[in-house]
Amino acid sequence: MQSNGLYIRVIDERLFKTTKEVTALTRDIDYIVDKFSDDIYRAALAVTGSVHEAEDIVSEVIIKYFTRQGELFFNDDEHLKAWLLRTAINLSKDLLRSAGRRLRAENEVSARSDFSSPDMQIDVQNAINRLDKKYRIVLYLFYYQGCKTDEIADILGTSKGTVTSRLKRAREKLKLSLSDYEKEMSV
């Protein structure tokens, strides 16, 4: 993801007294975009199921971070990352609830997958996209982000048991969905 479009919306040079402040903010934007934008994007994609909406969410999260930067304090990058992911998930859920949301095709697929066949990648992504968002979110955080169940519970504001249960159900649903695919392929 590139940060060029964000500079226009976030930086208004009239707000800054020195070039050093503008340079520092530009450096901060580059750092956040380079380090976290892919994670934010994948979290938003897991919830919305739409590439275009996920891209919009990335911009909104980064803008929200920089407009509230003075109010926020993070102990480390992991704390910052948790806030960014939580914000992405909340904004994605808000988008799904909004009355003006345009329907997107359910066939949008993620370019990232560990499966060798392009057809299999599409089928796996479609199976994931058909899951309820509560299952997509925990799958994304667990498998793509490498979060532990207690970290996921913190990010989602739920109990570790709920996260474990959702992971188990999501795996069962995917297994059932993909076993149907396997039967079709062997015929």
UniProtKB/TrEMBL annotation:
CDD domains given in the database record: Sigma70_r4
Ranges for domain RNA polymerase sigma-70 region: 33-102
InterPro entries with a match to the protein in the record: RNA_pol_sigma-70-like, RNA_pol_sigma-70_dom, RNA_pol_sigma70_r2, RNA_pol_sigma70_r4_t2, RNA_pol_sigma_r2, RNA_pol_sigma_r3/r4-like, WH-like_DNA-bd_sf
Pfam families per record: Sigma70_r2, Sigma70_r4_2
RNA polymerase sigma factor 70 region 4 type domain: residues covered: 123-174
Keyword Endoplasmic reticulum: no
Keywords attached to this entry: DNA-binding, Sigma factor, Transcription, Transcription regulation
Entry similarity comment: Belongs to the sigma-70 factor family. ECF subfamily.
Official protein name in the record: RNA polymerase sigma factor
Organism for this UniProt entry: Ruminococcus bicirculans (ex Wegman et al. 2014)
Lineage, uppermost ranks: Bacteria, Bacillati, Bacillota, Clostridia, Eubacteriales
